[in-house]
From TrEMBL:
This is Oxidoreductase. It comes from the Bacteria. InterPro entries: NAD(P)-bd_dom, NAD(P)-bd_dom_sf, Semialdehyde_DH_NAD-bd. Residues 2-96 form the Semialdehyde dehydrogenase NAD-binding domain. GO terms for molecular function: NAD binding; oxidoreductase activity, acting on the aldehyde or oxo group of donors, NAD or NADP as acceptor. SMART domains: Semialdhyde_dh.
Length: 211
């Protein structure tokens, strides 16, 4: 299997990269990032690109799936920056993949994503999902995790507080409410890779963790 990955330096993206490289069923991992490769690996093909030129610079030919783990926050990037990263860049890499008939596109969205949401963040995620659905991939995998757990390189005070409370809060969310539980980045990465391998036809919106 040959997989493309964007967002590999983020929390979920880094976990996805490590798991793909550890998977003997994956012959190639083609990464697009702003910065040079942090390490070398015989199956890793790292491409430093200008994200504002993704459609022209991201070569997706020959790939079985492209996985997108891009994401930022309004606090870090501002309202316009959030749209650029979480919608425009995602659509750009998806368009590049669709133009060379990549059969499966997988993306990390968010619980509560809706183009009609009063929340700017959730609204942008919802618009992103709608834009991807319009491209018509044979298999589109949209994963909607709740709060992400893991060690980030940046500080997000609200998330740090939520992570500290997660064990108690998760215990209060049994059965059908488990989709609202905080979830580890490693688990999200496992689920993303799993659905990419299965490449189920159609538009598939997944709540995590997968059963």
């Amino acid at each position: 299997m040959r997989v493309g990955l964007i967002g590999a330096t983020g929390l979920v993206g880094n976990a996805t990269l490590n798991q793909l490289l550890a998977d003997d069923a994956v012959n190639e991992v083609r990464v697009w990032a702003r910065q040079p490769a942090p390490f070398a690996h015989p199956r890793l093909h790292w491409n430093a690109v200008d994200f504002d030129q993704l459609r022209g610079q991201a070569r997706c030919d020959g790939l079985d799936a492209v996985l997108c783990c891009l994401g930022t926050t309004t606090g870090k990037a501002g309202r316009a920056g959030l749209v650029r990263v979480d919608h425009d860049y995602v659509l750009a890499i998806a368009t590049a993949a669709k133009s060379v008939a990549v059969p499966c596109f997988g993306v990390i969205s968010a619980l509560g994503a809706s183009a009609r949401s009063p929340s700017h963040y959730s609204r942008v995620k919802g618009r992103m999902e709608n834009s991807l659905q319009a491209l018509g991939f044979p298999s589109l995998e949209i994963l909607r995790p709740s709060l992400l757990l893991g060690e980030r390189t940046e500080t997000r005070c609200a998330e740090d507080l939520a992570q500290a409370c997660a064990p108690v809060l998760n215990a209060l969310l049994p059965g059908p409410l488990k989709r609202y539980r905080a979830i580890g980045a490693d688990q999200v990465a496992r689920d993303l890779i799993r659905v990419a391998k299965q490449a189920e036809p159609g538009i598939n919106v997944r709540f995590l963790p997968l059963t």
